[in-house]
Design goal:
Belongs to the RecJ family. This protein is an alpha/beta fold and 772 residues long. It is built from 24 helices and 26 strands. Helix 14 crosses helix 15. The longest helix has 35 residues. The chain starts with 6 loop residues before the first strand and ends with a helix.
Length: 772
């Protein structure tokens, strides 16, 4: 048995699963059905998104009065400050609004708070400085909905404040001239715009036309901020990716170059290439270079800024790696107090990357994680948290909001500032809340499976059909499919052999598969077993050849596994993974065997307290089958490793038949006497028997008193009592050894596995019958 790493959720109905027996199943239709899209109109809108399907901006509350105030500021020559955020959503939103105001002839500038000295969002001091510098109107983008203190300060000093945001609304709203927020707009149909999406709507309304020049920026901010890629977000992103592919922005051209993004840009290019680099500047230093990169029209300046940002991103990766290593060590030492929610904290940690670190911890430990940077000089701790699907971290935090100096975010991600002496109390409160809410299975990463497929249903065109649903992201995940087959050509690949490549065979069909990060599973999968696999389909291009490939997300083997290393000299190499598992490495005979595993002698086992283990390693053969059969029924292992050979043992494959015994007896009658020492080669040559076979027959006859032996000369007894061969203990022992070797050594793989399963399952069935 090989357990899956994640919890598999088949998202389609059982009736749909039965329908999939039909090889003509319409994959795209089923995927759309999984997303609640069944009607013809809905299907067409989803597969063919049109800009004309976007909602009118004026449906957003606050837009009309915001436009009036901005136009007044432009007419009066007032200075306008765009107050943005330091992530990819924030810097793209800032760029859109700055370019919009510039086109309208406004006197404007932008401000991005420093994560390390100012924290998240608008702050009173920044607003006072803005007022002192002559600004009379501040417009926030992607921030501000929780900036209560800053908003009060703006009102106090006579600074008009327009808030545009999309983050979670708290119990109260800040005081502002206007607030533009989809969730505060009852007439606006779509509530999940990103911050850049809200800024785009404001820009469209201010400009009086649809600003296609901003679509590339909208796509970046929307994808990077992980909002649902449905409805308007899907439309804006679809067209934005096309725009980004052919963008004429020098900054984005340079950024694509340093990120090695070529050809048609997709959501993964943003998620793993562009987004992290734009985020990196604000995580380590200041986000100004990111905004400058997007605003510049100078190719040389763009190249310099892109190079700088790329170097910052490399530094960010190194810092993240160091902190993750430290955090893992902390978690491993504090499992008792971090049982349901992980909270780790340390002085000196870079708070700008703690969200990434928390995400890594969630993936490693499968529970919510909060990482905090301790600041003794200010008596505070600041950081970020990330959560699992089953636990709303924002909601849990809101229950105890009095614990925080600052708090915000959404269900899966939060940011917080807390007094230093409240960290331990926070850990206790969140762990108790999670423990009360969550069941054990909730702590396993969820893997949603959209469809079960057979390999013969798949072609290169299948991937093209599936890609009609792109761009993929939140709310429209890249689909994962369930397949099964026999794994062949298993091999480790990668510089550190940390990836697994294999071929999945189903009847006469084969599919290439690769599982990143699963390299050490190469010895945990038997090519004879049926492997159940979940993954995404993709097209692999190599040397001009395109082929279908499965990118494996998870796999499992249900039932018992047999790993057949009988007679192999290299079995040690195949069981290295057992060191970290519960196993029993068993030896029946008392002869030296070299192994790094802890070896247990059979005669030292307490038969009344034999432990149940997942993995049983057999280093040699037992004395008889019954001995092993009884052991298997007690241990009930899921995996059996047959690592034995016949070295130093008698080979019983040539066990004599009754006719063999008759022939040798007749031979003695004719010869009267047989000198085994002198004549064994002659007899062996004539009969084709091994010498051991002749010796066995003689020993059986001697035990039954059919013959007498004098100085290796064998002759018949004068008077012989009629007896059966089975009356001989020696014969019985040989028969048992023959059976043992036939079952355990000379059987083929399937025969040995069937016997192994029968010994375990018969015991299980017996327990079920007896109500155990």
């Amino acid at each position: 048995m090989l357990a899956s790493q994640m919890k598999w959720n088949f998202t389609y109905m059982e009736d749909d699963r039965k329908d999939q027996v039909d090889s003509e199943v319409n994959i795209v239709k089923q995927l759309l059905k999984n997303r609640g899209i069944t009607g013809t109109k809905e299907t067409n809108q989803f597969l063919n998104p049109q800009l004309t399907d976007l909602h009118q901006p004026h449906l957003l509350n606050g837009l009309v009065e915001s436009k009036q105030r901005i136009e007044l500021a432009i007419d009066e020559g007032e200075s306008i400050l765009v107050f943005g955020d330091y992530d990819a959503d924030g810097v793209t939103a800032t760029t859109i609004l700055v370019e919009t105001l510039n086109e309208l002839g406004a006197m404007c500038d932008y401000y991005i708070p420093n994560r390390f000295t100012e924290g998240y969002g608008p702050n009173p001091e920044a607003f006072r400085q803005a007022k002192n510098q002559g600004f009379s109107l501040v417009i926030t983008v992607d921030t501000g909905i929780a900036a209560f203190e800053a908003a009060d300060t703006a009102k106090e000093i006579g600074l008009d404040l327009i808030i545009t945001d999309h983050h979670e609304i708290q119990e109260e709203l800040p005081t502002a001239y206007a607030i533009i927020h989809p969730k505060l707009s009852e007439n606006y149909p779509f509530k999940d715009l990103a911050g850049v999406g809200v800024a785009f709507k404001l820009a469209e309304y201010l400009l009086g036309y649809f600003p296609t020049q901003f679509l590339d920026l909208v796509a970046i901010g929307t994808i990077a901020d992980l909002v649902p890629l449905l409805s308007e977000n899907r439309i804006l992103t679809k067209y934005g990716l096309d725009s980004l592919t052919n963008t004429d922005r020098p900054g984005l051209r340079a950024l694509k170059e340093v990120a090695s993004i070529k050809g048609e840009v997709d959501e993964q290019d943003i998620g793993f290439g562009i987004g992290p680099r734009l985020n990196a500047a604000g995580r380590l230093e200041t986000a100004y270079p990111a905004v400058q990169l997007l605003l510049t029209r100078d190719p040389e300046e763009a190249q310099a800024l892109a190079t700088e940002i790329n170097l910052i991103n490399q530094e960010r990766q190194e810092i993240v790696s160091e902190i993750v290593d430290e955090a893992i060590e902390m978690v491993n030492q504090t499992q008792d107090i971090n049982h349901s929610v992980i909270i780790v904290a340390k002085e000196g940690w870079n708070e700008g990357v703690l969200g990434i670190v928390a995400s890594r911890l969630v993936r490693i430990y499968q529970r919510p994680a909060i990482c905090l940077a301790l600041k003794p000089e200010d008596q505070i701790a600041k950081g970020s948290g990330r959560s699992i699907a089953a636990f709303d971290l924002f909601d849990s935090g809101m229950k105890i909001q009095d614990q925080f100096i600052r708090f915000g975010g959404h269900a899966q991600a939060i940011g917080l500032t807390i007094e230093l002496d409240k960290v331990d109390e926070l850990r206790t409160l969140l762990n108790n809340d999670a423990a009360n809410q969550l069941a054990p299975e909730d702590f396993k990463e969820q893997l949603n499976i959209e469809l079960s497929l057979d390999i013969d249903q798949l072609t290169l065109s299948t991937v093209n059909e599936i890609n009609q649903l792109a761009p993929f992201g939140m709310g429209n995940p890249r689909p994962y499919f369930y397949l099964k087959g026999h794994p062949q050509e298993l091999k480790q690949i990668g510089a550190k052999n940390n990836h697994l490549k294999f071929t999945l065979a189903q009847d006469d069909q084969k599919l290439s598969a690769i599982a990143f990060g699963y390299g050490d599973y190469s010895s945990r999968i038997s090519p004879h077993d049926q492997l159940e696999v979940v993954g995404e389909l993709q097209i692999n291009e190599w040397n001009g050849t395109r082929s279908l490939q499965l990118l494996v997300k998870d796999f499992q083997v249900q039932g018992y596994q047999l790993f057949d290393y009988r007679g192999s000299k290299f079995w040690h190499n195949q069981i290295q993974h057992l060191f970290d598992q519960e196993y029993l490495c068993l030896q029946f005979q008392n002869h030296p065997i070299e192994s790094e595993l802890e070896i247990t002698q059979f005669d030292q086992l307490d038969q009344n307290q034999i432990p149940e283990v997942t993995d049983l390693v057999l280093l040699d053969l037992p004395k008889d089958l019954k001995q092993l059969s009884q052991l298997l029924s007690k241990i009930k292992p899921k995996n059996l490793y047959a690592c034995y050979n016949l070295a130093g043992q008698k080979d019983w494959t040539a066990f004599p038949t009754r006719d063999d015994f008759k022939w040798f007896y007749g031979f003695l009658i004719k010869r009267k006497a047989y000198n085994h020492k002198l004549e064994q080669k002659q007899v062996a040559g004539h009969t084709g028997w091994r010498v051991e076979k002749i010796e066995f027959i003689i020993n059986v006859f001697y035990e039954l008193k059919f013959v007498k032996i004098d100085n290796e000369v064998v002759s018949l007894n004068d008077s012989v009592e009629k007896r059966q061969l089975t009356d001989s203990t020696y014969y019985q022992q040989g028969l048992k050894q023959k059976e043992l070797q036939e079952v355990l050594y000379y059987s083929n793989y399937q025969q040995l596995k069937s016997w192994f399963i029968s010994q375990v399952e018969d015991r299980v069935k017996e327990e079920e019958v007896n109500g155990l």
